[in-house]
Specification:
The protein has 189 residues and is α/β, with parallel strands linked by helices. It has two domains: 119 residues, Rossmann fold (3-Layer(aba) Sandwich); 59 residues, Arc Repressor Mutant, subunit A. The protein contains nine helices and seven strands; from the N terminus they run E-H-E-H-E-E-E-H-E-H-E-H-H-H-H-H. The strands form two sheets. A five-stranded parallel beta sheet has the order 2-1-3-6-7, sandwiched between helices. Strand 4 and strand 5 form a beta hairpin. Helix 3 runs parallel beside helix 4, helix 4 runs antiparallel to helix 9 and helix 8 packs across helix 9. The longest helix has 15 residues. The mean pLDDT is 91.
Length: 189
């Protein structure tokens, strides 16, 4: 059974997702949160396996929330969900620690498959096109290039820190800076 928390600011989206996901065997929507303020108490009350997280929340940043969720013990899997999800979002999503990225227009079976995949520890991310990786490399400080490359390749932050002989908190701080530079801005709808 996959215990799921849905985070989206649109009431109709939360209700629709809850109904669709309740009908799918093996997926249990535990609760929903509509904002960053709702997220923390709901997260600690429900202790989900997976968080389905809207990329764009008014007054909040889905990437920063993802980073925060991935620091929880135990950390839930996070599937970023956006009406604008495409390959341009994949590098910031990876740096934020997302286990997956899915467009809200995906058919229900694709959503079920993505939730199951991230719940079992697989990554559900589009491939990083070469030109986006090159653009990311140009947008970050040259000293951050090794961190960028290792994290995009799936190296855990603790191993990045060990390989570069720097504290984990420094790697984490530098990742936050890279996410800020590489994040994809989308218009509020």
């Amino acid at each position: 059974m996959i215990r799921l928390l849905i985070v989206d600011d649109h009431p109709a989206m939360r209700a629709g997702l809850t109904a669709v996901l309740r009908a799918e065997p093996g997926i249990i929507p535990l609760a929903t949160a509509s904002s960053e303020l709702d997220l923390e108490p709901t997260l600690h009350r429900t202790k989900p396996d997976v968080v389905l997280l809207d990329y764009h929340l008014p007054g909040a940043d889905g990437l920063k929330l993802c980073r925060r969720l991935k620091r929880e013990v135990p950390a839930p899997a996070v599937l970023l969900y956006s009406a604008y999800a495409d390959s341009s979002m994949v590098v910031p999503a990876i740096l934020a620690g997302a286990d997956g990225l899915l467009n809200k227009s995906a058919p229900a079976p694709e959503l079920y498959d993505a939730l199951r995949a991230v719940a079992r520890g697989d990554r559900v991310l589009p491939p990083v096109p070469r030109e986006l990786m090159e653009a990311a490399g140009q947008a970050v400080d040259s000293s951050d290039l090794p961190i960028l490359a290792m994290v995009v390749d799936g190296t855990p932050i603790s191993e990045v820190a060990e390989a570069l002989r720097i504290p984990v908190r420094d790697v984490s701080r530098r990742l936050d800076g890279m996410i800020e530079r590489l994040r994809v801005e989308i218009a509020a709808v």
